[in-house]
Request: fold
Amino acid sequence: MNVQDLYAISPLIVLVTWATLLILVDVYIIRDRNGGTPILAALGLLVAMGFAIAQTGQQYTAFNGMAVVDGFAIFLQVLFLGSGLVGIALAYNYLQRMGIERSEYYILLLYSISGMMLMAIAADLIVVFLALELLSIPLYVLAGFGRPKVEPEEAALKYFLLGAFAGGFVVYGIALAFGATATTSLAGIVQAVNAGSANLTLLSIGAALILIGLGFKVAAVPFHMWTPDVYQGAPSAVTAFMSVGAKAGGFAALLRVFVSALPELAADLSPVLWVLAALTMILGNVVAIAQGNIKRLLAYSSIAHAGYILMALVVFGNTQVSSDAVAAALFYLVAYAVTSFGAWAVVIALEKAEQKGLALDDYAGLGRKYPGLAAAMAVFMLSFTGVPPTLGFVGKLYLFRTVLEGGFIWLAVIGVLTSLVSAYYYLRIVVIMYMRDGDPQVHAEPWLRLTAGVTAVATVVLSLYAGPLFAWASQAVLKLF
Amino acid sequence: MIPLSYFLVFAAALFSIGLYGVLARRNAIAILMGVELMLNAVNINLVAFWRYITPTQIAGQAFAVMVFAVAAAEVAVGLALVISIYRRRNTVVADDIDLLKF
Amino acid sequence: MLIEYLPIAILLVISTGLAALIVWIGNTFGPRRPTLRKSLPYESGMNPIGPGTRRMPVRFYLVAVLFILFDIEVVFFLPWAIVFRQLGLFGLIEMFVFIFILLVGYVYAWKKGALEWE
Reply:
């Protein structure tokens, strides 16, 4: 333990300290008077982001190889902190409007983000497990944040039971990996495998169990059953944060563990991931067609997008392609985050109390009455589909390119075909907004409008400057030692 | 000395029992207990591996401690959720909690 | 050798069989005239004051949840206490940080009224 160790986790220390002190501030100073907490929480995120960005370009391990600072970690930390900021912006008026304003929302949000950040710097399976739980447990509570209503509570219980179940799989897998290699450090696992001292059968079983558990977290088929229910029942602001943060956290773990520690197992696991990715893309997109509720539709859409990101993971054993694949996955995560937050901002703007205002028909006439909001939503839907010039298109392009370089032609074909299928339901929303008459009610709150506007502009503009962004993501490769 | 495989088989059996509990029981508390059994199986694995494979390092033991501390935190959240639902609905049967069906 | 355990096995079989036999004889040949008093759980003892599976007030569960949380954290004190001297000042500060975090949780529970019974 030395100063550099502390410096490595300085964004995390700042965030956790901030959140902990915020509890005291909230209990003693702010009490139930509204206002202060969200601003203070956002400030904490910004400070932590400053610490994270200050580490750009550095590469070292800390705490005897338990944590690692590399481009991957910094990139993801910035992504998580940014999604936290959006999470606060989306919730700021929404919680008041729904009558569920409690300052615990912001504190729990900070804790959940600290779990995600820990996941980004984890270089040891113990830390991966701790980060996973630190990420999930506040989210279980957040999902039930709408109590005393019934739906959020049920969503929270469902999310909790399946999340705890998935956590059991992950940690059993980790225990087996520990037994197979006599170490929990990712670097140690690589060494043990290279030295031939590892029990590869046991390690494969462990890796498969970890994959199942994290598959639940990122909502990959066939471990996706909870997603639509939880996304629908949880308060929309929480769902928005969950659909980006929890998914990115899960993929951070998957990429870190599989690409950096287990490439030797590719012969066994790559086909499994192939099937998983294909199933996720197909089922997510096909079932989404039948949805009439926008929250459920976005839930299935998030499942489908998990499938696209899983494609990047299929090539994890091919060391020539895998760093490109990681970059493509990170880029797609950013594209998905920006687009998804924007879409959720529009959904939150239209949502009314008692789960009303969420049917697709409620979007009729939006194009005439609120042209700005409708245009933003149209951009997000195009980006989800993967139509140029949007981030979603560029992200898919990079993903398909890596998959083709890795030699998985059929997977890329499935990806393209399912994207075509997805055009049907995404563009249907656009058609409903512009072609049908209706009288939509919109809560045009300033933070929501700002979020929708900024993300819409970013979706288009960043796609025109995708090269530098991808170059940044390419520098964010995994370095273990 | 008892061979390592005994512990592993026992842990696997315990894990499977927990898994069965999660999948087959309808009471939310019973599902939670199933999850706890799964985590206990993990702890047996960890401690057994520690004893037989890396008795000189502390990682396995430390991990086991982490696992059950985290499990306790999880149980606390789960029980709180269950109590909250029970107060309103007077049921803890997972099948009755069906507002958000497929 | 396993054969040395044979007498114990025989004893087990005989005692189990005998017990089963006696219960069976009593059940089959004994007269059975149940009355209310006889079928009470504690015959000629305390009168039961309600069903055995009585509901506990929900408050108990809240206390139980808090107990689990603060109880389990003690597990981290044990390894710390063992290596306390090797860790020196650093270990002491570390533990203070840990206790401070716990304390914040406690203060939160206290201020939100989770510790009040009424």
About this structure: Residues 59-89 of chain B form the longest helix (31 residues).
